[in-house]
Write a structure and sequence with these properties.
Length: about 350
């Protein structure tokens, strides 16, 4: 938006500069012609950056401002006393547009430069000869009309920039809100899918228990119930907002086993590392199986390094998870009445 405003000012300045050529012939003076060429050159230099919608270099801004103010002073000094603020005084109306072009993004400096331009022009006019009352009135009208119009352009540009900035902020906030809504919807869908998948494995067990197909006193039935309870508790923990999700889910599996009377020791080492949700499910899967089958004791360890994450369990359970290779590698071994399972995920 700012680049577009400056481009529009470049066009206005070039047009006003072109219209000012006729004023040179009202009072022809060599100094006036040289002074007229200076703001024209500044306009051309500004166009190099403005057309490409790039900010003006500081050296050009400073040098251009000083150059156009000096050109205005030279052009005004070359005028006869009765030509000030008249058709021949082209510099007064023109230089203000150059200042707008150069200092649009530096409002305090722009106002100071405009004030200096007005004071300098009026001072030179007064020093050229004592003006009459009618001349003072005419000069006042010219000064007020030109200055107020150019300041009005400045005010309108600031309003447009403010509105554009607010519109951009509103659009960005809407985009962020849409992104949050999409993420929330995706999270809800994943949550439903996870619960549906877990309940899909649990509901047949509940149905068989309700229909009397399974005997609650049988060891196999108790093992299936313990595994279902552990998996559901881990699923609930998965959706908690905690600093360390993996430790939280491992602890949830441990708590279910402890509620069954199993004595479980848990050791955690290493700093937390980000682990995707699906990887955490695969890491805690063997843990849930081993703890569900544990009878009296189990020992759980979680090791985290920069290169890998390991979840291991030793339990007095005669289950065999088998060996799984893939993103999460699982090793299982049975040693007498004890089973050791280890799930390993390489972070890189």
């Amino acid at each position: 938006m700012f680049a577009s405003l400056r481009l529009a000012l470049l066009g206005v300045t070039a047009v006003v500069q072109g219209l000012g050529v006729a004023a040179l012939f009202v009072h022809d003076h060599p100094a006036g012609r040289v002074a007229f060429a200076v703001p024209a050159l500044v306009t051309l230099l500004c166009a190099v950056w403005v057309v490409r919608r790039r900010p003006l270099p500081k050296a050009l801004v400073v040098g251009g401002t000083v150059a156009v103010l000096a050109a205005s002073s030279v052009a005004t000094e070359a005028l006869p006393p009765d030509a000030h603020f008249g058709p021949a005084h082209w510099s007064y109306g023109l230089i203000g547009w150059h200042l707008l072009l150069l200092l649009l993004d530096r409002v305090p400096v722009l106002l100071a430069a405009q004030a200096a331009h007005v004071v300098l022009s009026v001072t030179q006019w007064v020093l050229a000869g004592a003006p009459e009352r009618a001349e003072i009135g005419s000069a006042g009208v010219v000064v007020f009309s030109v200055t107020s119009f150019q300041l009005g352009v400045l005010v309108m540009s600031r309003i447009l920039l403010r509105n554009a900035r607010r519109a951009a902020e509103v659009a960005a906030e809407r985009e962020r809100a849409a992104t949050r809504a999409a993420l929330a919807e995706q999270w809800e869908q994943d949550l439903r899918a996870g619960f549906a998948g877990q309940l899909g494995a649990t509901l047949p067990l509940l149905a068989d228990l309700a229909d009397g197909v399974l005997d609650p006193r049988a060891d196999d039935t108790r093992l299936r119930c313990a595994l279902a309870a552990t998996q559901l508790r881990r699923l609930f923990a998965e959706n908690d907002d905690v600093p360390d999700p993996l430790v939280h889910e491992v602890t949830a599996c441990v708590h279910v086993a402890e509620r069954r009377g199993v004595e479980v020791s848990l050791a955690v080492s290493g700093a937390p590392v980000p682990v995707p949700t699906d990887v955490r499910r695969e890491l805690t899967g063997p843990l849930a199986v081993a703890l569900s089958a544990a009878r009296d004791r189990a020992r759980v360890s979680l090791l985290r390094t920069e290169g890998e994450v390991r979840v291991a369990v030793i339990a007095d359970a005669g289950v065999d998870f088998g060996t799984v290779t893939g993103r999460v590698e699982v090793e299982c071994g049975t040693y007498g009445r004890h089973t050791r399972m280890e799930a390993r995920w390489r972070t890189s």
